[in-house]
Amino acid sequence: MTWHGYRDGFDERIALLSDRLRQGSWRPGPLRQVPICRFSGKVMTAVIPTVEDRVVHRAMRNCIEPVLEARAFHDFVSGYRPRRNRITAVAQAARYFVDSYRWVADVDVADVSGGSSVDEVIDWLSRWITDGTFLARVRVALAELPHPIVPGTGLAPLLINLRLVPVDEQLAHLRVARFCDNYCAFTRTKADAAMAFEEIEHVLARIGLRPAPNKSRVHGHMNPEDLFMIAG
Description:
Distance between the termini: 39 Å
Structural class: alpha+beta
Shape: elongated
Strand order of the largest sheet: 3-5-6-4-7
């Protein structure tokens, strides 16, 4: 069904959808799986949910996001957030450069959307969301996906940031900026940057993640606008 078709009788459709969600009878519809070729040439699988399921995903995100914005997400995190994008991440980097912190531990997290289970995601959410009925509805939405943070759903970007909250908490003492799944820690010497790189690597390992080897490195004396680039 197209968005145009869903608008035909929209008020009645939304009322029925609301009732099914309230009663717990809502179940996700079928998914269309599509291959997407990334900039590196690697092919990944994304999904296209039904129009109605996208409405549900957006409604769930609208409920979760304000809570996480107020309680979970750090100020140094940009990307997949309202009014926080690559521009805000580069601006943070530029401030560190002005203060002579020009060596960078640049860590891109490998496969941040993979390797998690529905139970794990619900555990992450339950730290901040205590409404059991709401969590049960989220569980239903995630259970029918190939994996909980599969690209293409309305919840995936939010869940990537949520997954990295424990890492953010452990790295908050560093001069760090994160854009999506890319951490940059800023130091004044190459040796300190190497130590920061090792620390980020160890913290990621605690939650089963690791740096992407071909996109993570220590470098210095570059333009901050060259950070947080695709394949940068």
